[in-house]
Amino acid sequence: MRAPLHAPAVRYPCGRSPAVGWALAIVAATALAGMAAWLELGTADADMAVKAAAGLGLWLSCTAAAWLWWRRMPMGHLAWDGGQWLLDCGAPGPDPVQGKPHVHLDLQGCLLLSVRLLRGRPSWLWLERRSDPVQWAALRRAVYSPARSKAPDPAEATDAAPPALDGGVTTKT
């Protein structure tokens, strides 16, 4: 029987990506231009003020939400030590992550992950290969491999052989 392969320990930088910031800005500008064209080409004068106010309010809300999401991205390092995921943002110390990171988007050169810290709400991470090309393959192996907890897995405990018994009494060696 082969021993299970485990992902190597890895520490990978994470933070706000300028590329994601620019992409969000382009989407916001395109939405504003589309709204302006919609108002210019498809409305009557009586409804113009109401539609313009509603459209502008919706655009501002969506743009503000995207900007806040981008600004709240943690800056630091995501680390796998072989037994636990940690998010180190330089505060008092690294925060343990519940479970393993959840992959939402994998573009081979970029990963969009969410992690749930033991305290607080989920954090979103945008990781790019160019941040640390040498560690990129190790990070991907760690993210996609089954994370082994430091606590024993209940499924493994049922597969293990029962302790040797001698007449109903456990033997000690």
What is the strand and helix layout of this fold?
Blueprint: E1 10-14, H1 18-42, H2 45-71, E2 76-80, E3 85-88, E4 95-106, E5 110-117, E6 122-128, H3 136-144, H4 154-159, E7 165-166, E8 169-170
Antiparallel strand pairs: 1-2, 2-3, 3-4, 4-5, 5-6, 7-8
Helix pairs in contact: 1-2
Name the descriptors:
single chain, 173 residues, alpha+beta, 2 domains, six-stranded antiparallel β-sheet, 8 strands, elongated, transmembrane
Protein model, in words:
This is Toxin CptA. Keywords: Membrane, Transmembrane, Transmembrane helix. Residues 146-173 are annotated as: Disordered. The chain crosses the membrane at residues 20-39, 51-70. Residues 152-164 have a biased composition (Low complexity). It is a single chain. The chain is of the alpha+beta class and 173 residues long. The protein folds into two domains: 10-14 and 74-147; 18-71. The protein is built from four helices and eight strands; from the N terminus they run βααβββββααββ. The chain has helices at 18-42, 45-71, 136-144, 154-159; strands at residues 10-14, 76-80, 85-88, 95-106, 110-117, 122-128, 165-166, 169-170. The strands form two sheets. A six-stranded antiparallel β-sheet has the order 1-2-3-4-5-6, covered by helices on one side. A hairpin with a 4-residue loop joins β2 and β3 (85-88). α1 runs antiparallel to α2.
